[in-house]
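notes to self, project folder thing:

trying the whole complex as one job this time. last attempt i did each chain seperately and stitching them together was a nightmare. two parts in total, labels are on each line so i dont mix them up again. if this works i'll redo the older ones the same way
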Amino acid sequence: MSHGFYVWAAYGMAALLMMIEPWLALRRRRRALREAAHAEVLE
Amino acid sequence: MTTPRLFNFAAPSRFHALAGRITPWLWAAALLVGAAGLYVGFVVAPSDATQGEVYRILFIHVPAAWMGMLLYLAMAFWAVVGWAWNVRLASMLARAIAPTGAMFTALSLWSGALWGQPTWGTWWVWDARLTSALLLLFLYLGFIALVEAIDDARRADRAGALLALVGTVNVPVIYFSVRWWNTLHQGASLSATTAPTMAGSMLAALGLMTLACWAYAFAAVFSRARAIVIERERHTAWVAALVRGEAA
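result (full assembly):
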């Protein structure tokens, strides 16, 4: 197996994880805002 | 005695606003510095005399490993601050750091295995460095699972802080493992007491990629922290106003 496979696999996984993580954070924020819109204000 | 201005940002609403202003710049810095680091690492830096091209994996492996360890210490620090002084935002920050730290640790293990196979002839060995790094990943995953499993947020914060604090002993074990034990993993890439042995362009690439990972980590943690703040503060008037503002 050429060394290129190993290098591409390493950076490819890094790129994939670094695209998924911000997307998950954004999705979490949107869900939090949706739930907050229906939440009762207690203070 | 007046409260120091820094404590103003312990208010979740102020942190949410400040992080919202800073985060886009952090994403931009991560992209630009990362692009520069990749250019220097793949175009400027020469091939290694013994490893050929596969050594270039180290430009992501080493920064990822460093970030995994440093983020764990940061997570434990904020978790303990939240526990000891009852600062809600500190506990929220600890929860926000955990997934990013786990990601970097997993990435360091993945890239390390991809480097190890062509150089050592094996994907994995149970030496002190690799085993303690794997333990670090389990500690991250354990923290995340523990705080998510407990419904009461403050109880979850306290339990997580205890686990994070106990796990901090693993970080110096990881760092000094290559000195304390006879390991397959080589010694530190850089030393504070001796001049670097690697070529200048390789050092530059490593430095740029490390900075890019720092910027990425801050951006990711702040993004997640803002979501956690909204989740935990959803019953407050400021979040209600924020929702009305975002909906407008």
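what i see at first glance: Residues 1-36 of chain A form one domain.
need to look closer tmrw
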